């Protein structure tokens, strides 16, 4: 069972403010932090799995620098606010236990010109560059500036050069700052204050705003340097999934603050996924975008009275313009997965989707519905499309919002092999399988029969198989309604290994809700069509008599024991491309038309090469061990 979540977040947003400096026309950008104690901080981090790395950051005198590598600037600043609140020095009162960190919060700054409560409940942001908003009009373009007071000129240091126990954020990238300047400044900051927080983007992030677009340095290298030079702890953060429990809770909280709620027919997952698509260029579902969305709802419907929003009302602010409606294909996140032929398989998969959809509608209307997830068994020869069918089913379910989205993983689709479900030591297999089912809503277990077969553990392997299959029975019995598990493997008239798998544990077999048989593709119809489609996807044109050339090859392969069904079409196309490449390089012909054209000679030579390879394998398999090419001639006899 999933852990029940508290009802409210304490600090889901970061509010940037400008703090006046020395009561002149200068200000410092900073984050405004609400008062928080350790219990409030822990409660928030319990609700945010994507912020879990923050718990491992060490906050003591020997670790005065923390590095936060985040997917967005907003996430990085929010994380920095939590770390500073955990550290405690951001508060000048006794909300947190000062003895834990040996910090004196009664002294904010040793400079006599500074206000002792200058930084109270704020976290200054330092960009290592003199910015016009930092100084008044009489400021000098240097680290120091002159303050004229009662006819006396006083040279004051830049605020970041004032010794202070209060932490600050060093925001990267630093415009016009070299690596040596960065290290020098960090050395100064870590020596002057109790905590320096370095916030930087991830290396693999595709920039979508100025904060990241100006940063071309290797952030991994910089983080490693800070870790080595300053004993810095590093936390790497990613955004939670759009429909994660964290985002659901925040959406509900924001709606309740404005006397709004969603109708039973309007699921939070639907709203969050629509928001992710609608605000794709602004990082999708973020705390700020959620706040803007709910404020817009309040503007449209808020009347200081409780209001239950229908699906149409909730999605109205997220409706794309008429220009978008003219080209709906642009909204497709990824290409549709195709399964060639297999009409009976497609029909059965669609029935699974329809069943889950109806059960969802019944639950929304508080009618009796199935409370158990779908457990499927895919049986068929190699190359019959079992893995492709699983991915296609996942895509259908995802489009219909029928899967549990309460996981902070990058993909709901998770594929493992049966052998991977057995841990190295006795007693570890059950927790491994339990964690797998707790972490994913769609699990595809390929070669499931490996659970019931001996493996690397020898004769004692039965213990691992029994532990694995026993735990699987427990997990399948408690499988939530919006979860899907698929067992796949070889099954048919010959070597039906999936039947052996089911016979190994009758309790497992009784939990299968659908069994789908994948028949081999026909060499006369389906395999040629697959070959043609694969070539078309690669932009290749086939010679006119291509069908009369490939059908006999597929027919011959279908009679062999190692027939790979659909994989035969892919293998033939790759062989054609190899032959074509050799020909074009020899001819030094790199014209576009030539690159996109397969000739009769290419196809004929590809078939010959493949058949020659298969014959060689058959001949080698009949040779006694050690004879090789030195075998005696047929007419010779042993001495």
Describe this structure in words.
With 639 residues, the chain is α/β, with parallel strands linked by helices. It is 39% helix and 13% strand. The protein contains 21 helices and 16 strands. The strands form four sheets. Strands 1-2-4-7-8-3-9 form a seven-stranded mixed beta sheet, sandwiched between helices. It is globular and about 85 Å long. The model is unreliable at 1-5, 93-116, 130-149, 204-217, 321-333, 455-461 and 626-631 (pLDDT under 50).
Short description:
The protein is of the alpha/beta class and 639 residues long. The protein has helices at 38-47, 73-87, 179-192, 210-213, 219-230, 245-257, 268-278, 287-301, 311-315, 322-325, 343-364, 386-399, 429-439, 461-477, 497-503, 506-509, 526-537, 546-558, 566-587, 592-595, 600-621; strands at 15-20, 27-32, 65-70, 122-126, 144-149, 152-157, 168-171, 196-201, 233-237, 260-262, 307-309, 374-380, 413-417, 442-446, 484-489, 514-518.
Beta strands, count: 16
The stretches of 5 or more residues where confidence is low (pLDDT under 50) are 1-5, 93-116, 130-149, 204-217, 321-333, 455-461, 626-631
Mean pLDDT: 76
The amount of beta strand, in percent, is 5-15%
Counting DSSP H or I runs of 4 or more residues, the number of helices is 21
Helical content (DSSP H or I, runs of 4+): 25-40%
Tell me the distance between the termini.
Answer: 75 Å
Main sheet strand line-up? 1-2-4-7-8-3-9
Report Rg.
Answer: 32 Å
Structural class: alpha/beta
Please tell me what the overall shape is. globular
Largest sheet: 7 strands, mixed
């Amino acid at each position: 069972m999933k852990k029940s979540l508290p009802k409210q977040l304490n600090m889901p947003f970061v509010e940037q403010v400008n703090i006046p400096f020395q009561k002149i026309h200068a200000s410092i950008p900073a984050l405004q932090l609400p008062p928080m104690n350790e219990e409030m901080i822990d409660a928030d981090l319990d609700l945010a799995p994507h912020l879990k790395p923050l718990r491992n950051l060490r906050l003591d005198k020997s670790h005065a620098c923390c590095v936060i590598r985040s997917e967005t600037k907003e996430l990085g600043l929010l994380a920095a606010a939590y770390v500073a609140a955990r550290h405690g020095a951001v508060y000048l009162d006794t909300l947190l236990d000062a003895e834990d960190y040996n910090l004196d919060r009664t002294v904010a700054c040793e400079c006599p010109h500074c206000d002792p409560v200058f930084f109270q409940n704020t976290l200054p942001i330092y960009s290592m560059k003199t910015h016009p908003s930092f100084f008044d009009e009489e400021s000098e373009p240097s680290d120091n500036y002159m303050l004229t007071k009662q006819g006396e000129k006083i040279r004051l240091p830049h605020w970041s050069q004032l010794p202070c126990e209060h932490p600050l954020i060093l925001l990267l990238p630093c415009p016009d700052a070299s690596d040596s300047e960065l290290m020098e400044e960090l050395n100064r900051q870590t020596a002057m204050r109790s905590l320096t927080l370095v916030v930087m983007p991830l290396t693999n992030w595709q920039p979508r705003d100025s904060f990241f677009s100006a940063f071309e340095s290797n952030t991994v290298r910089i983080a490693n340097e800070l870790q080595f030079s300053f004993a810095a702890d590093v936390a790497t953060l990613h955004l939670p999934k759009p429909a994660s429990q964290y985002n659901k809770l925040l959406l509900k909280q924001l709606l309740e603050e404005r006397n709004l709620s969603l109708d039973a027919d309007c699921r939070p997952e639907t709203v969050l996924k629509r928001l992710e698509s609608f605000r794709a260029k602004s990082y999708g579902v973020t705390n700020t975008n959620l706040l803007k969305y709910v404020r817009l709802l309040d503007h449209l419907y808020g009347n200081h009275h409780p209001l239950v929003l229908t699906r149409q009302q909730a999605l109205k602010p997220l409706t794309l313009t008429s220009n978008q409606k003219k080209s709906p294909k642009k909204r497709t996140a990824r290409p549709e997965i195709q399964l060639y032929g297999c009409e009976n398989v497609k029909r059965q998969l669609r029935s699974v989707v329809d069943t889950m959809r109806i059960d969802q509608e019944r639950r929304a209307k508080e009618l009796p519905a199935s409370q158990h997830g779908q457990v499927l068994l895919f049986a068929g020869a190699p190359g019959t499309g079992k893995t492709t069918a699983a991915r296609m089913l996942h895509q259908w379910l995802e489009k219909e919002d029928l899967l549990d989205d309460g996981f902070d993983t990058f993909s709901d689709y998770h594929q493992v092999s049966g052998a991977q479900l057995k841990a190295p030591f006795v007693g570890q297999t059950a927790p491994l399988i339990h964690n797998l089912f707790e972490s994913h809503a769609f699990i595809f277990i390929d070669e499931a029969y490996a659970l019931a077969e001996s493996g690397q553990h020898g004769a004692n392997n039965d213990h691992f198989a029994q532990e694995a299959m026993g735990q699987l029975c427990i997990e399948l019995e408690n499988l939530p309604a919006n979860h899907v598990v698929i067992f796949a493997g070889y099954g048919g008239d010959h070597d039906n290994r999936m039947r052996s798998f089911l016979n190994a544990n009758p309790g497992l077999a009784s939990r299968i809700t659908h069994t789908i048989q994948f028949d081999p593709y026909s060499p006369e119809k389906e395999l040629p069509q697959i070959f043609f489609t694969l070539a078309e996807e690669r932009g290749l044109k086939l010679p006119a008599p291509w069908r009369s050339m490939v059908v006999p090859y597929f027919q011959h392969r279908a009679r062999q024991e190692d027939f790979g069904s659909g994989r035969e079409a892919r293998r033939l196309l790759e062989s054609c491309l190899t032959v074509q490449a050799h020909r074009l390089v020899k001819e030094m012909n790199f014209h576009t038309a030539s690159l996109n054209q397969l000739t009769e000679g290419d196809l004929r030579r590809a078939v010959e090469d493949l058949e020659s390879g298969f014959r060689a394998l058959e001949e080698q398999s009949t040779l006694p061990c050690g004879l090789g090419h030195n075998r005696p001639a047929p007419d010779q006899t042993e001495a």
